[in-house]
## 1
Amino acid sequence: MQHISSTLAVPDSTYVPRHVAIIMDGNGRWATQRHLPRVAGHSRGLDAVRAVVEASAARGVQFLTLFAFSSENWRRPADEVSFLMRLFMTALRREVVKMHANSIRLRVVGDLGRFSPRIQQLIKDAEARTAGNTGMTVTIAANYGGRWDLLQAMRKMLARSPMLDPESIDESVLAPHLAMSYAPEPDLFIRTGGEQRISNFLLWQLAYSELYFTDVFWPDFDAAELDKAFASYRQRERRFGRTSAQLVAPGLSGTA
Ligand code: IPE
Ligand code: IPE
Ligand code: MG
């Protein structure tokens, strides 16, 4: 199914955001504050993932996207990277069973070729196992980068039609090749850990997302913190380029 593009038409705004995308940041600082090794923060971060998946599903979110490892995170010390890989494997083995029991569909997006064959196999198995589920879709962005996504989409687009007339390229030609074409654009973007940046997350899809930043470190983010983000979201006026007056009386002025 092709989803509405926020730049081509005005999407509906719902009380509960349909798609929530989260940069789970601050694990290392959470641990350092407690005089623990950084990786202890990553372990606790997985507990927070569990809590937020559960709370999101309970609130009626349809798509939850979690940035787990960026294309730039390979720059970290080798022992931290290998810890994260092991944690990813553990999560794929253990958490997927629970997600499947809760009818959650799991997807993993990113340049997966850089992961070990074992991880790649676990990802395939998890996606296949949960493919028929009809509950919330949880997407894990792993070795993901927004620029990578745009480039791989362009490559796929050209591979399909090498003689493509440049003038014929519009959103509807490119967007189906983006890694998350199965989901609507995020309504709400959340970043924990205090930094106010996108860090190469969903560059195309965040065009009209509401942005929410909190100082809370990811391991401390829970259902109550999610509710604060949702409360902030409900205060926003999503204009998508229009004026406030048009939102009050949509039929009276302008076009869609
Ligand atoms: C986010 O927490 C997790 C990953 C990037 C894998 P960080 O590890 O970036 O934590 P801080 O930002 O150093 O505190
Ligand atoms: C962004 O966090 C990526 C993930 C949470 C997976 P980083 O901690 O890597 O981002 P920067 O380096 O502070 O921008
Ligand atoms: Mg960080």
## 2
Amino acid sequence: MRVLGLETSCDETGVAVYDGERGLLADRVYSQIADHARYGGVVPELASRDHVRKLVPLVRETVEAAGLRLADLDGIAYTAGPGLAGALLVGAGFARALAWSLDIPALGVHHMEGHLLAPMLESKALSMPFLALLVSGGHTLFVRARSLGDYEILGESLDDAAGEAFDKVAKMLDLGYPGGPAVERLAREGTRGRFAFPRPMTDRPGLDFSFSGLKTHVMTTLRGLPDDRATRADVARAFSDAVVDTFVIKCRRALRATGLERLVIAGGVSANSDLRAALTALGGELGCDIVFPAMRFATDNGAMIAFAGYCRLLAGEADGSAFQVRPRWPLSALAPPPGETVTGNLT
Ligand code: KG4
Ligand code: ZN
């Protein structure tokens, strides 16, 4: 089965083709970052318009790169939520119209399920159950993934998502958008230990997070300091260490509490090298498998949507006639594909 995947939930237009036998055949991402950077964040209306402009040429290019024609496709998956309503509607409208014209099924996919399954794109041996830490611009979630669609939320951020905190701290440090990679780069120049920032919510039980206080802590710290690059780098270092340490403490706790021996970390913040190194070390210490998606599948992309769509289309799921996108859509609302529970290795 060959599935075209379309991601348009935010500021990346992602298109990919996944083949059940041959794996990922082609994948293209067009990033709108340069258009939004001067506004300091994503402007929803601009994002929608750019998806309209880019989707058709990108689909043509990707299908051709896969060595296929549109008529060779067996299904089309698109991100149906969560995300920006207008941006989601562009992808949904395009995907459903194209599927209808080709007489193949379309399926709206949950963006965070895409992130959750992304490591499976390359690691065929990876199987559920596993613990997942999903860290993106809009979500920070601990998930017990039992099987496709059977996800129990074990903890989440009570305020800002981790990626959002990176983006806001980047603004305070006069760095560009998106903030995560910029803060990571600046932190490399910083000296560890000059500032000690809190590890929020690690002193009480449970697996929830809170990053808003840490962000405020950065702001108040900066107020009393000279505005030079070395100082900003030291603050970036302290902030990054606080976030990474918080995740290490909570992952250790979550692995112990669940007894699971496999931890998947996915979503944009999983591209952070310090986080990767620290959690890999934790895995070594606890004897657990720590799995990350390849760097290019950590941030938003079409391949993860093609793959999640493939898993569900293969199990017989498809859109009905109602047209719907879900800008807000809790991951816990998902269910296994009807009539079938897919466990273990999904491919
Ligand atoms: O998953 P993603 O691409 O989009 C959403 O679904 O939100 O995640 C984007 C988020 C942004 O907040 C960005 O700053 C953060 O991921 N991010 C990073 C890094 N790369 C991206 N955060 C920390 N370190 C990075 N290297
Ligand atoms: Zn994402």
